Amino acid sequence: MVSRRNFLGGTATGAFAATASAVSPVAMAALPEPVMQSSADTAAPLLPPTGRPYNPVVTLNGWTLPWRMNQGVKEFHLVAEPVVREMAPGFKAHLWGYNGQSPGPTIEVVEGDRVRLFVTNKLGELTSIHWHGQRLPNGMDGVTGLNQPGIPPGKTFVYEFVARRPGTFMYHPHADEMVQMAMGMMGFWVTHPKQKHPLIDEVDRDFCFLLNAYDIEPGSATPKIMTMLDFNLWSWNSRIFPGISPLVVRKNDRVRIRVGNLTMTNHPIHLHGHEFTITGTDGGPVPKSARWPEITADVAVGQMRQLDFIADEEGDWAFHCHKSHHTMNAMGHGVPTMIGVDHSQVVRQITQLIPDYMVMGERGMKDMTEMEMPLPDNTAPMMAGQGPYGAVGMGGMFSVLKVRSDQKRGDYTDPGWYRHPPGTVAFEYTGNLPDPARLRAEGQPAMPPAAPMQPPVEVKVRKPPGGHGGHGGH
Ligand SMILES: [Cu+2]
To answer: Residue 7 Cα, ligand 1 centroid: separation in angstroms?
Structure first.
């Protein structure tokens, strides 16, 4: 296995950067050596050693696949195979992917590049790769049975086409659909413009990741591939918070985030502290006249979105899916909502039968992040992540945009937590709480009832203990 340091450090670069003149006819006939990745860390951007220059992307908890230039053709070698993916520290999943990881490596090319992709199948069943969003000859489109025979186990197929339009794309199998994508087979593809493009601004930092989801029973490691909607792990690049790298930027950087969705539901991706513009989709750059500002972009199934903004507010800004269940990790489903329910009497009776019975969530579910719960081995904590002010009650599709004025250009190292200037953090009010002013119309219907009203039903609200007793409680 080639480690990240190995191929980014330049020692191995020669193997991929062989110039056309250096490639003998024998070597041309040979497969490019597959580059494997064993780490789930975010690799540094891969500066193109050959071909047209471009500003490379940073794949969250991923990497870009090096290529071999062969007589003007960029040659890549993808290996479809079972992988072990660390989804969060201490939690490993048995997935299928490419070149040692799920998702597979990001492919980066330049508009107009001729690309040759060798795909070796090390799975136990047929596979293929569809190059989502590419203009290409029909026979290169990768739909098993329709455009090509499936790639049998142990065999290698060759795809070749010109990357005709710049943009944000992905790749995935079109073979045993439900199984192979549910097992994590997918990857990102970026085609950079070959020259200044009127609709594609140059940016300082360019991040990309795929939205994916798994259903892995606590204590096990293999996804249940029959699950259609009820997933328990909502991930970015097969990672869950707190395992997702922060997006580290320098203040006033122009930032692009590219997101693709290969789950079975939509994800409203939400950024705090800034507004962004959707500047492109997998259909291409968005005309300037059709752009509008957003802080949440809904990425539907099978779609890709390219978000551009200027990171001009310092701080640690949450960046997450806005579906609240998607910022949670593996939890037991069918857990009743116990908020406001006083189970102290019930507990006394149950503990006589089950001595270590534990009641959860009387104040909400966040209690559980602070609780030391016995969990089966290889289980993602339900919600985890420790911030500077305590537990962050989120997991899953969540990360942090870290904007720092003293971050060096091109430096992606985590600067740690933001140090808030004095007097800029929400603080406790310690004065008296006045009685609430009530509107006279409170509780009245908008229209008079047609028939005499039933006596009103009294709803009792139980406030959490330890609040300001006597003010608004019952
Ligand atoms: Cu979501």
So the answer is: 34
Helix H or strand E segment including 389: none
In a domain, 8, yes or no: yes
Name the token pair of 79: 């290996």
Q: Are 119 and 125 in contact (CB under 8 A)?
A: no
Q: What's the 457 CA to ligand 1 centre distance in angstroms? A: 37
Q: Is residue 189 part of a domain?
A: yes
> Is 233 among the domain residues?
no
Residue 8 has pLDDT above 70, yes or no: no
Instruction: Write the CATH number for 29.
Output: 2.60.40.420
- Among left, alpha and beta (phi > 0; psi -120 to 50; other), residue 357 is beta
Confidence check: pLDDT of 340 > 90? no
Q: How far is the CA of 295 from the centre of ligand 1 (A)?
A: 15
- Specify the number of domains making up the chain: 1
> Does the residue 92 lie in any domain?
yes
Could you give the angle at the alpha carbon of 461 between the alpha carbons of 455 and 466, nearest 5°? Answer: 155
Mean pLDDT of 347-364: 60
Predicted model pTM: 0.81
Q: Over 90: is that where the pLDDT of 153 sits?
A: yes
| Dist CA 47 CA 115 (whole Å) | 18
Ligand 1 geometric centre to CA of 241 (Å): 13
- With a cut of 60, say whether residue 127 has pLDDT above it: yes
What tens digit of pLDDT does each residue of 213-232 get?
999 988 889 999 888 888 98
**In terms of residue numbers, what domain contains 106?**
4-209
